[in-house]
Design a protein that fits this description.
- The structure is a single chain.
- By secondary structure, the chain is of the alpha/beta class.
- The chain folds into two domains: about 150 residues, Leucine-rich repeat, LRR (right-handed beta-alpha superhelix) (Alpha-Beta Horseshoe); about 110 residues, no CATH class.
- About 25% of the residues lie in helices and about 25% in strands.
- The protein is built from seven helices and ten strands.
- Strands 1, 2, 3, 4, 5, 6, 7, 8, 9 and 10 form a ten-stranded mixed beta sheet that branches.
- Strand 4, helix 4 and strand 5 form a beta-alpha-beta unit.
- The protein is globular and about 65 Å long.
- The termini are far apart.
């Protein structure tokens, strides 16, 4: 980063929104200098490769955290394009959490590109009861952020990513009845907010082979996964829930020799929930 850039920062102290994308800073210290230059900062977005040399991503020489005390973010957005960036962001997140700038965070949005190493729990714990909207996407199975600290959460958006489905429509129905139900429960079982109003769920089904995709009857009483999901959704944390929106994107492929044709379409899936929940 050129020295002229840092010399110009004091001229923009009223800046409230900052987006850093693939800037490849020399160190974590440089990231701190940039953020600390904007005491009125409310929205921070970090995307892609932020620090060029991960070997310098340590706490040595980083600005004292007292310099950050006037900054109180309302929105933090993190976007990882590859899982290789997760280790770098682990250090960045740990450092930002120590600064206290997330203690009044209202909106947290994270795209993780399949990473299992991103310390989301640290961010959610730092935001605590101030968080009202949590969004996560591209996370692998069973790696969702825990919502236990988010006791005032009102809006929840997350995605589920299933494995490749092969064979008949029965296998698709089996995935919906078991894998999807377990994934939903892994998220909903951590909800501790009595103010949750809206939930949006997005999932993709990569499908190979010939199958009937029509609706299948589901015996909730006889399915332990769906029964557990119903039990979770019956908790008082969902009394204020007004609706659940589910979007399913099916990637449907036909095998014809060596040729593969993929037809993509949007659909909707209905998962039985308590009567007060509209799906």
């Amino acid at each position: 980063m050129r020295p002229e850039f840092f010399r110009a920062l004091p001229h923009f102290t009223s800046l409230k929104s900052l987006h850093l994308s693939f800037c490849k800073l020399n160190s974590l210290c440089q990231l701190g200098r940039i953020i600390c230059a904007f005491p009125q900062l409310k929205h921070l977005s970090l995307e892609g490769w932020i620090i060029a040399d991960q070997g310098s991503s340590n706490h040595t020489g980083v600005i004292h955290l007292q310099s950050w005390t006037n900054i109180r973010l309302q929105l933090l957005q993190i976007t990882l394009d590859t899982s290789h960036e997760a280790e770098e962001y682990k250090t960045i997140i740990e450092w930002i959490v120590r600064s206290g700038i997330c203690n009044s965070l209202e909106h947290l949005m994270v795209w993780a590109a399949g990473s299992r190493r991103l310390p989301l729990t640290l961010l959610l714990e730092a935001a605590g009861p101030s968080l009202i909207h949590y969004f996560e996407d591209k996370f692998p199975s069973r790696c969702h952020g825990t919502l236990i600290p988010s006791t005032a959460l009102r809006f929840l958006d997350f995605s589920l990513h299933g494995g490749v489905i092969q064979g008949t429509g029965k296998s698709v129905d089996s995935w919906l009845r078991s894998r999807l139900a377990r994934e939903l429960r892994s998220v909903f079982s951590t909800v501790r907010s009595h103010q949750l109003e809206q939930v949006s769920i997005k999932t993709e089904l990569p499908f190979y082979g010939s199958a009937h995709m029509g609706p299948q009857p589901q015996d909730v009483a006889g399915d332990p996964d769906l029964r557990d999901l119903h039990g979770t959704m019956g908790q008082p944390y969902f009394d204020m829930l007004k609706g659940v929106k589910v979007s399913v994107r099916v990637l449907y492929a036909w095998h014809e020799g060596r040729k593969l044709e993929v037809d993509e379409f949007d659909g909707k899936v209905s998962v039985p929930l308590p009567p007060r929940t509209c799906l």
